[in-house]
Design a protein that fits this description.
By secondary structure, the chain is mainly beta. The chain is built from 1 helix and 9 strands; from the N terminus they run αβββββββββ. The strands form 3 sheets. A 4-stranded antiparallel sheet has the order 2-1-6-7, with no helix packed on it. The radius of gyration is 15 Å and the shape is elongated.
């Protein structure tokens, strides 16, 4: 069975914007998450992976917090995109590489639960002096 288009949008709005689904799901009232954290990965972290699985590692890299509101994410139908380009820290030292996956999770550091993951098209190269960036045209689709 598949979810309806309306419910797909409701789920994305709940997760990315903190908007309750009437009579079904509320955003935490005492301590709701205020940010989601994007991570870059050199390979697919997999369905059982964590934010640290295959995560990019270079001096200057850190997960990027994005507000869990309409100011951080735009939900349109069954897809969601960042409202602003997401820039990771400039690579100061380390081994050059390519991020082929990105993930949205709940932890700023450490293992962290992945909520969504997907291939980056195009892949994001990182090397000394480069600021890796995910564009606003990147989308996550619920289907």
């Amino acid at each position: 069975m598949s979810k309806s288009n309306t419910f797909e949008e409701d789920i994305l709005k709940l997760i990315f914007n903190g908007v309750p689904i009437p009579n079904l799901a509320n955003n935490a009232s005492s301590a709701p998450a205020t940010h989601l954290y994007l991570s870059l990965h050199t390979a697919d972290p997999g369905e059982s992976g964590a934010q640290s699985t295959s995560e990019v590692s270079y001096t200057g890299y850190a997960r990027v917090p994005v507000q869990r509101t309409p100011a951080g994410w735009v939900v349109t139908g069954n897809s969601v995109s960042p409202t602003q380009p997401i820039e990771f820290g400039e690579m100061i030292a380390g081994t050059n590489g390519t991020a082929v996956y990105a993930a949205v999770g709940v932890a700023q550091t450490g293992t962290g639960k992945i909520l969504y993951r997907g291939a980056l098209t195009p892949a994001v190269n990182y090397n000394i002096g480069v600021v890796p960036r995910i564009r606003t045209t990147s989308t996550i689709t619920e289907d």
